[in-house]
Design brief:
By secondary structure, the chain is an alpha+beta fold. Helix content is about 30%, strand content about 25%.
Amino acid sequence: MGVVLLGERDDGEYDRRVALKLVRGYVSERVRERFRRERQVLAALEHPHIAGLIDGGTTEAGEPWLAMPFVEGRQLRVLAASSKRPLRSAARRPC
């Protein structure tokens, strides 16, 4: 659900990179509700191995988004492709 992009502040106040998750295009009410729940869950979680919520909202076009800390690393699909283990196993790999 959605795309994840690298976001950076553009107001010059300070430097910060974030992972920006955005649902583009037509978004059904079901998807909007699911995204709202995801934002709420992230806002409530505090754990060193979970990227928590920094901010979230809706674009002028009505597309829901959320910003999380950017964590340098490899994409899960790249890790899975380079591994002999199935994707499900790679997803359970500890940080």
